[in-house]
Amino acid sequence: MTANPILLQEKYARVVEAFAEKAGLTLDAALDFFYRSETYRLISEGVSDLHCMSDAYLADELMAEYQKEDSL
């Protein structure tokens, strides 16, 4: 399923904002991490309709990626 590009951009904004709050990052830092993340790649490629998941779920996925990267 392909998401509407405008709605997808709005979703990205909400997810990045929630992730920034969870991780204690600035919006710029959170956005930078988001666009380099595996989660973004999967959403943008439409894998498993990941864009249909809740904003909170996707922010949690980003947080898990962030913590994993931070521990390396």
Topology:
Layout: H1 5-23, H2 27-36, H3 38-44, H4 55-71
Helix pairs in contact: 1-2, 1-4
In short:
This protein is mostly helical and 72 residues long.
Note down, in words, how this protein is organized:
The chain is mostly helical and 72 residues long. It has one domain. Helices cover 74% and strands 0% of the residues. It has 4 helices and no strands. It has helices spanning 5-23, 27-36, 38-44, 55-71. Helix 1 packs across helix 4 (55-71). The longest helix is centred in the first third of the chain and has 19 residues, at 5-23. The protein is globular, with a radius of gyration of 11 Å.
Please tag this protein with its features.
72 residues, mainly alpha
Spatial extent as radius of gyration: 11 Å
**Which structural class is indicated by helix and strand composition?**
mainly alpha
Strand content: under 5%
| Mean pLDDT value | 93
Largest sheet, if any?
Answer: none
Shape: globular
> Helix count?
4
Number of domains: 1
**Portion in helices:** over 70%
Low-confidence stretches: none
H/E element order: HHHH
Distance between the termini: 34 Å
Strand segment count: 0
